[in-house]
Each structure stands twice: as structure tokens, then as C-alpha cells.
Amino acid sequence: MTRALSTPPVIPHGSLGGSPQPERGTPGGLEIRPWEDGDAPDFLAAYRDDEIRRWHTRRPSTETQVHGWFAACRRDWQREKGAHWAVARGGGSVLGRIALRGFDFDDGVADVAYWVVPGARGTGVASGALTVLTTWALREIGFHRLELDHSTRNAASCGVVTKCGYLLEGTKRSAAVHDGGRHDMHLHARVRDEGPVRSVMEGSLAGRTA
């Protein structure tokens, strides 16, 4: 059943799913692109890392499962439910993942998720990818608000989102289950009219569209 609205949707329905999912680049040489079947070994290896497993309880155990995830990612884009990207450098192996999920076109809201492989941590991969994604979603697509939550015990993630201008709005008590039990979650958000995402990343819009 279609929900009757007294106001028009912030983003017109049908404005994304019929177009190819975009690719973007950053001034630091990162490539942000849709997942490809050839990425399956890198994707599976990432979920064997203890830190990624610590914060992500939904994880694949075989390459067959990974291919199923990639197919679901493509369907999410087509159905305008979300978008999922690999983060690489210069066409090389995967350095991380970033996603925009739970598209709500009526209110203009979505949530962000990401991870970075061990060898790329502390090199600006997460903040670079998040900045580009935020700029694309708020400025190009027209989302009004992006949300990101993480365990209150995940100080590294808190540092990344704060660096990218996502304000800490509060704590969601006992809101998520991790392998070690229930965790409180910090809720961060970025709102479109708060100004430029990061002036140092203005060149990030020079990426290409697939």
C-alpha cells in the first residue's frame, strides 16, 4: 500500500534505481566503486580479521555466500533500498567497504556503514571514503540527513565520523548485539545544511560515474 503524504518526498522515487550505480575517486587516489565478483576473495578475507568480526556479526563464511551478498547489493540499488561500494586504490586490491543503507526518500534519511582492512587503517581510507560518500549523498542526490552508529567501545570509528563532521547526538542504550554481548551505541549524524563536508576534500567530486 502506498503511503499518502501531505508533503512531497525529499528525493523523488525512481530517481536512482534506473541509473548505473556511480563510482567516485578521491584526491588521495582512492577508488570507490560497486562490488565486482572478482572481489569475493578480498571480501571474505576481510571478515576473517578480528577487529572487523568484533563489530560485524553478520559475516560470510564462503565465497558462494559473498557472491550472494554482491547480488543482493545490486538488487538494493535497483530497488532503491541502499548502495554498497568497495574502496580500493588505483585498481588494486580492496582496502575497505562503505555503504549507504535504509534509503528513506520521503524524509531524505539514510544510514552509513564501513570497514577498513588491517593494512589500510590509519591511512585516511575510512575518512576519505566517508567524505566522498557524504558529499555525493547530500549534495548530489539530495538526502537531508545521514546517520551512523557504532559501539561506544569503538573509539576508532568515533574518531573517523567526528573528523568527517558527523555530530554525536547521543547514546542508544543496549541497542546492538555483538559477539561479546549487548553494546550501547553512539549515534552520529550529518545534516545537509551544516555546510561543506570537509573543505580539504572539495576535489572529491571529480570522480566518475559508471
List the helices and strands and how they pair.
Layout: E1 24-25, E2 30-34, H1 40-46, H2 50-55, H3 63-78, E3 82-89, E4 94-104, E5 109-116, H4 125-141, E6 145-151, H5 155-163, E7 167-178, E8 181-191
Parallel strand pairs: 5-6
Antiparallel strand pairs: 1-2, 2-3, 3-4, 4-5, 6-8, 7-8
Describe this structure in words.
This protein has helices at 40-46, 50-55, 63-78, 125-141, 155-163; strands at residues 24-25, 30-34, 82-89, 94-104, 109-116, 145-151, 167-178, 181-191. It is of the alpha+beta class. The protein has one domain (24-206): Gcn5-related N-acetyltransferase (GNAT) (Aminopeptidase, 3-Layer(aba) Sandwich). A hairpin with a 4-residue loop joins strand 4 and strand 5 (109-116). It is globular.
List keywords for this structure.
globular, 210 residues, 5 helices, single chain, alpha+beta, Aminopeptidase
Strand portion: 25-35%
* CATH fold group: Aminopeptidase
- Percent in helix: 25-40%
Mean pLDDT: 89
Reported for the largest beta sheet, the result is:
8 strands, mixed
Low-confidence stretches: 198-210
Shape: globular
CATH architecture: 3-Layer(aba) Sandwich
What is the fourth-level CATH superfamily? Gcn5-related N-acetyltransferase (GNAT)
Count of alpha and pi helical runs: 5
**Structure summary, number of beta strands:** 8
CATH class reads Alpha Beta
Count of discrete structural domains: 1
**Rg, Cα atoms, Å:** 17 Å
Helix/strand class? alpha+beta
Order of strands, widest sheet: 1-2-3-4-5-6-8-7
In N-to-C order, the SSE pattern is EEHHHEEEHEHEE
